[in-house]
Amino acid sequence: MKYLKNLLIQLSMLDYYMRISYQRKFISLKRYESTARFLLEIRKITYGVIRSEKSV
Predict the structure, then answer these.
(1) Confidence (pTM)
(2) pLDDT tens digit sequence for 9-51
(3) In angstroms, rounded to a whole number, what is the distance separating the alpha carbons of residues 38 and 32?
(4) Rounded CA gap, 12 and 28, in Å?
(5) Helices of type H across 1-56
(6) Taking 80 as the threshold, does the pLDDT of residue 56 lie above it?
(7) Which among 34, 14, 15, 18 is positioned nearest to 26, based on CA atoms?
(8) Which of 4, 39, 50, 51 has minimal Cβ neighbours within 10 Å of its Cβ?
(9) How many Å apart are CA 32 and CA 25, to the nearest integer?
(10) So what's the pLDDT on residue 55?
(11) To the nearest 10°, the Cα dihedral for 49, 7, 38, 12?
């Protein structure tokens, strides 16, 4: 459980840094959107695993 929560924190930080990179024009909008969708999908999977672990 500790590692899953740590993963969520890492994903949030990565999302934050990607947003800053886009705002400062280091990456394109297309790259930002595709990466954000990927991170969102991983976050959903992680929350699902956490939810299933709590119910067991």
Answers:
(1) 0.82
(2) 999 999 999 999 999 999 999 999 999 999 999 999 999 999 9
(3) 10
(4) 20
(5) 2-23, 29-55
(6) no
(7) 18
(8) 51
(9) 10
(10) 83
(11) 120
